[in-house]
Amino acid sequence: TMKNSVPQAASLLLEKLLLLVHVRPLPAGSGGETPPPAAPGYYDTSCFKRGDLLEVPRTLFIHFGIYLGENRVAHLMPDILPAFTGDRRQIQQVVTNKRLILGVITKTASIRVDTVEDFAYGGSILVNHMDRLFEDQVLGSEEAARRAEKLVGATAYSLLWNNCEHFVTYCRYGAPVSFQTDKFCETVKMIIRDQRSVLASVLVGLASIVCLGLAPSTTLPTIFIPFFLWMAG
Fold first, then answer.
1. Which residues are catalytic?
2. What is the active site of this protein (predicted)?
C-alpha cells in the first residue's frame, strides 16, 4: 500500500545516502565520536604492495584506499576541519562522524594518509578486487601510488561526483568512476518517479520529529531527503 511504501522508500534512500557518506552507527553513549580502530599490528601488511587498491566492505557501503607502503593508506574522507585549519596534527586525528557529516553538507573533504588499522577499522580487506572490472585499464602500481600521493590534501567533496571510490579508480585505472554512485542513482530514480512519495517522505519525517523529538533516527531522513540533490551537485 501507499502508506507502507512511503516510509520504506524514505528508509531505502537514507540507507543509500549513508552508504555513500560512510556514516557508521555508533554505540550508545559514544557522544557522536568515532570508536577506536583496531590495535596496531591487527593486519598483516606483508601481503600488500605499493599501489594496491584496498576495499573494506561494510554493511551498507564499501570504503576504498590506495596502499602507499609502510602501513600507509591514502583515502578520501569528507571532513569539515580542513576548511577551518591547516594544522596537520588536528586534521590527522581520526575523523569523527560529526566532522564527516559536516564535511558532506559543506562539500569539503581531505585525501589523507592513515595506517591500515585506522583506514579499515577492523573490517576485512579486499586487495585489487576491482581489477577484474577494468581488465586492460590497470595502471602500473607505482603510477597508482604516485597519483594518490600527489592528491593528498584538502579537496572538494560530492556524494555523486567525488567520493572515495572516484579517488581510487582514478589512481589505479586512470578514470574516476563509482559503482556505488550508480546504484544510488538508480535508487533515487525509483523513488522520485512518484513525486508524491518524496513529498510524503518529507512530511513523514517532519511528523516524526514533532511526535518523537530531535533524534538522529527521525531528523536525518528529514534533512537528507529534501536536500540530497543539492549535496550531490
1. 164
2. 164
